[in-house]
Amino acid sequence: MDLHSEQRPSPPVSTSLFGIVAVGVGDGGRPALLPPPQATRHDRFVTPQEANLRCEAVSWISHDFPGWLRVRLVDVNNASWYFVDKVPVFTADNSRLEARLPAPVHIRCSIIGRDDGALVVSTAPHGVETEDGQCLFRVHPGQFDRHKV
Fold first, then answer.
1. Residue 110 DSSP code
2. Is the entire prediction scored with pTM above 0.70?
């Protein structure tokens, strides 16, 4: 090897918990996410698929307008994740929530990838996260609802 030749460092590569890979690209090597395989391309932009993820409202935090709920999501590993937010974030029809809990609701999410038969979803684009700040989840494909709950 020539001592005077310049070695170019390879771009940094990291893999997240869900196997989403970030690689260094131009613009000073800033990391960029690789597009998910099921995303649709519009020119240079990648649009993740939007979906309604079925969950269940488990308790009322407050009945004061607009109402606050605690909602549970069960992921592909049977782990429970809890969200607390306003009723309209989870359902457009709060009349059935008055009857009895638990009750079916949904969380709007973006499907951003696949991992071993599970789908990786993010609730971050919709401003929703768990009580401990988590917004990425691995869920079963059958956990989605085509219609708003």
1. E
2. no
